[in-house]
Write the structure tokens for this entry.
Amino acid sequence: MSEISNLKAGLIADINAADTLDALEALRVGAMGKNGVVTGLLKTLGPMSPEERLEKGPPIQDLRESVTAALADRKAALEQAALDAKLAAEKIDMTLPAGIGPQGSVHPVSQVMDELAEIFADLGFSVATGPEIEDDWHNFTALNIPETHPARAMHDTFYFPDAEGKKMLLRTHTSPVQIRTMMSGEPPIRIIAPGRVYRSDSDATHTPMFHQIEGLVIDKGITLGHLKWTLETFLKAFFERDDIVLRLRPSYFPFTEPSVEVDVGYTLTNGQRVIGGDGDAPGGGWLEVLGSGMVNRRVIEACGLDPDEWQGFAFGTGVDRLAMLKYGMNDLRAFFDGDLRWLKHYGFSALDVPTLSGGVGA
Ligand code: DAH
């Protein structure tokens, strides 16, 4: 009898002193396991006579229950202590400044826009902007794009529900900034207008939002020669090569007349296509980089200017595409994934400010 109560006291003292879950498990196996002391005592009950069992059974059952309860209590206490320790160790104070600095870098699109602004600033162009939510008149009508033009079809343009009879849309190109600039200022005009544009289109080379840059010059006696020189000077500065060869192809845009599409030649250098050189050389070819032309008289008129007095040229191109050509990316969608690994690879240091003297590509 006192043997069992001594055993009980000893086991419970050991259990309460166990300071790890492993130590507690060893005690459980020693007491309650297959060959444990408590299990051994329980086994002695079987062969006993009913009278003997009536006498010896209760203290043994009490031992089993007490030890089981002590094990469970100690286990719960140790687990709670482990959780408390973990919570204390992992506690973070959200009000403290982060231990790491900013992770980003300058996105190639921003870098290219900065490069373009720098190049054109040197040629006397200022940067103009316009709203991304445009009306149908600035985006289409004033640019001599008739109602029936395919660019107006719903599959290209994101329209807003009609409001007060005014058709609003997400601008499909930066060309409406031409209109806004001519209407709000006096010529002579020399501007570029970089910004976001939207079209309902999505694959490896098209995203519903992308970036364009528009250029506009309005002055007296402006000719196609001025356009060609300006684009050549710009592309040489942008690609940082003097051997840029342009090919001007007759084309059609409603807002220019005549219209030209501009290709740059690339050549094969060590098996790689590199921009520069005569695209007609063996292994070479031409890449379309710009749409342009002499501003259509009807556009100048729509802005309230006299086309016999003022002429000019305009051009437009995709900034994302220029970035891909210069820095060698091939999937446009990655531009807008926000993946820091991509940005680490292609991004630019915030200190690499493009300057013509330092090299615009930094
Ligand atoms: N707006 C045209 C487009 O989105 C690009 C363009 C072509 C702009 C010719 C111009 C231009 O200013 O003269 O495809």
Summary: Strands lie at 126-127, 133-135, 168-170, 189-198, 209-219, 246-253, 256-269, 272-275, 285-295, 311-318. The mean pLDDT is 91. The first strand starts at residue 126 and ends at 127. The first helix runs from residue 2 to 17.
